[in-house]
Specification:
Shape: globular
Distance between the termini: 21 Å
Number of domains: 1
Helix content: 25-40%
CATH topology: Beta-lactamase
Radius of gyration: 19 Å
CATH class: Alpha Beta
Number of strands: 11
CATH architecture: 3-Layer(aba) Sandwich
Number of helices: 14
């Protein structure tokens, strides 16, 4: 295991160590100062869907919501990794109509909606879901809306050289305090360009995001996107999802966004700080538990919030047949000031 990563959580079964989840945590302010860490706070990783609010910035900065009539609910969907529930599809349809495009122009592809994997409903039959149910369809609809707003080609909107993607890369670099050429490029699961960055840069970007109107460069757009996400956490994620529960528990103060393969970011508007977590094996349970534990260590949780988020600590490992405790999952990291 890389020396820059530390054990974040361990699982025990019958008192014997069974699994260990390694990773890193960075807590930063809006100026990029690391105020607390576990492992290497500058570990470079792909935030994946955690950067969706920043990918929405060019559209918001250029007046897209006003010109196309996008509502806060629409903006929340642009930032979402949603579950493909009817409420999410309805927002996508609304945005597609306002932008004057069809859902077949979405290049995110199609997968079984997340709500099926969560057991919220029966697994949908093949052919009963489409691109609108894809967890990234809100982001892709925003991409198309930007293209329509600026008269850009929609067929190639995912190409790295497309003006939209160039605008996103430039904006993301400015938000995170990096140079565009230092953002390592890859391709996300929805075929959109993905950018790797240090955890500390991701946390800095979210701390700026949480600063809202206090940010001299993106203040108005940060307020619009932040209010949309905290006002509609069910649209940002979905029923039974961590981002929804975190933002509800935060009562408007916390902006929360998950990223695939072990990334979670939570920013506090009142503190103008953000915590970014990466679990290197990509475990959803581990990153959820680590994020809540980090918030508790930072003193962000009162007793009511601690109880509301207790289940996400996944402290008990239960048997499937009897629903009895057969093991435990323990956080083993301590946040410390930077070296």
């Amino acid at each position: 295991m890389h020396a820059c990563l530390v054990p974040l959580l361990e699982t025990l079964r019958g008192g014997t160590l069974e699994c260990m989840h390694y990773g890193a945590v960075a807590v930063c302010d809006a100026q990029g100062k690391v105020v607390a860490q576990a492992g290497d706070p500058h570990w470079v990783t792909f935030p994946r869907s955690a950067i969706k609010p920043f990918q929405a910035l060019p559209f918001v900065q250029s007046g897209g919501p006003r010109q196309l009539g996008f509502t806060p609910s629409n903006l929340a969907l642009m930032c979402a990794s949603h579950s493909g529930e009817p409420m999410h599809v309805a927002q996508v349809d609304d945005m597609l109509g306002k932008a004057g495009v069809g859902y077949k122009q979405l290049q995110c592809g199609c997968h079984v909606p997340f709500f099926a994997d969560l057991g919220l409903e029966h697994r949908p039959a093949p052919g009963s879901f489409d691109e609108r149910n894809h967890n990234c369809s809100g982001k892709h609809t925003g991409f198309l809306a930007y293209c329509k707003l600026h008269g850009l080609p929609t067929e190639t909107y995912l190409e790295p050289a497309h003006p939209l993607q160039q605008a996103i890369r430039d904006t993301m670099a400015r938000v995170t305090g990096m140079r565009p050429e230092d953002l390592r490029m890859g391709t996300d699961g929805c075929s959109a360009p993905a950018f790797a960055m240090p955890l500390s840069a991701l946390a800095r970007g979210y701390a700026r995001f949480a600063s809202g109107a206090g940010d001299s460069e993106f203040g108005e757009s940060f307020v619009a996107l932040g209010d949309a996400m905290t006002g509609h956490p069910d649209l940002v994620s979905g029923t039974g999802r961590l981002d929804q529960d975190l933002m509800r528990a935060g009562k408007g103060d916390w902006i929360s966004k998950a990223g695939a393969d072990g990334v979670q970011v939570v920013a506090s508007r009142s503190r103008r700080q953000a915590v970014a977590v990466k679990v290197i094996d990509g475990s959803k349970q581990a990153v959820s538990a680590a994020a809540v534990h980090a918030l508790d260590q930072l003193g962000w949780l009162d007793e009511a919030q601690r109880q509301a988020l207790w289940a996400w600590r996944a402290a008990s490992i239960l048997s499937i047949r009897r629903d009895e405790q057969v093991g435990e999952r323990l956080a083993v990291f301590a946040l410390r000031p930077p070296h």
